[in-house]
Amino acid sequence: MYDGRTRAYVSRCVADAFLAGVWNDRALVDRAGGALDHRPRWVRPVAREVLAAYARPPSDRPRELARFIDLALRDRRSDSAEAEPPRVRRWLVPEPAMGPRRWPVPEITSLAGLAKFLDVNDGELAWLADVRGLERTVADEKLRHYRYMTLRRPSGVARVIERPKHRLKEIQRRILHEILDWIPAHESAHGFTRGRSVRSHAREHTGQFVVLRLDLEDFFACIAAGRVYGIFRSAGYPESVAHFLTALATNVVPSALWCSLPRSTDPAQIDAHHRLGRRLATPHLPQGAPTSPALANLAAFRLDRRLRGLAASLEVSYSRYADDLTFSGPPKLLSAANRLRRAIAGISRDEGFMVNEHKSMLATRAGRQQVCGVIVNERLNAQRHEYDVLKATLHNSRMHGPESQNRDSLPDFRAHLLGRISWIGSLNPARGEKLRRQFARIAWHEDKGEP
To answer: Helices 62-75 and 239-249: crossing angle, nearest 10°?
Structure first.
């Protein structure tokens, strides 16, 4: 019935007519008939199919309803009376609405409401959302919303850092604090989550006989825009609002930038290089945006839930910090490690992630067990090398002046040292106290710009 283009156009018109008033059989038929130049025979049966599928009007998803009607028309047999498609006489505009809200996120029902929420006008909203797709194609850096930096990794595959410019970063921070902060991550996620940290992640695996760690490949880049859109839709935002929120939180790396990066010479990393290139060439979570960590945690919710269930079935512990997956347990985990690795890789693949086989680690109590740089053999502790280096830095600062040790020209070297001391002290209070006593002996000279 009708060609695809005509059917899609008529379906959108009928969907908006259905949503523009009372939700019952007679009202739907009357509004659809009034929107078209004549009322086709299929209007009433299609209206009944819609009412059977949607007990309430899907005002937050008009495109979904239009697609439903399109499929209903496609499946109907055409007859001579319906061969000529109806013409649209007028287009009814339904009132947009939020979908079911599982969390107390702000109510935003339209693009005008989103622009007001973000304190921008309609044009600026479209510009920041990059509706013209300029980020990937333009050569002029001024027309882009991100600045890029590449870092070489020991694996040989470059890491691309995508840092949003000031205005977009402000918008992303508002989305983070006023929307995403209301949506809880899984309890196994310890990274970028309020009340949890590297310490809480490492504490889950203290004093265990076996510690197994695995790494997810390209954690942010592998989370595509479609999954981000699903998160905002799950929060209750209408399709149009969720679409723009997704555009504001995702990015596509300029093709010229990726082509300029040197390829890995390691044959084992060639496939990984191409996978990263494909991920960066499509809308994805940018590593460097304020919203990316929270959205990545939410995108990994099902992964965490399934891995937590897998761990429980084996009576072992599981937690995740960003892309670091950690399992720990009794001696029987040693014999089950290979089977567990295969199960983790399969679950990760099902959930859209990929385990980096080159960065897994298994350690028993006989060796040094480390989780995100924290020693967990018997209790939380800092690495001995880290402690020794800081101790030497403090000693040399006392003997030769702190400016002699500030080799990276940090603007606040005093605060930098205090931060490192606090970190070690949080893991090992006795060592932290020794370092604080050494720090207290350093002479800080205000006339040389030190605090």
So the answer is: 120
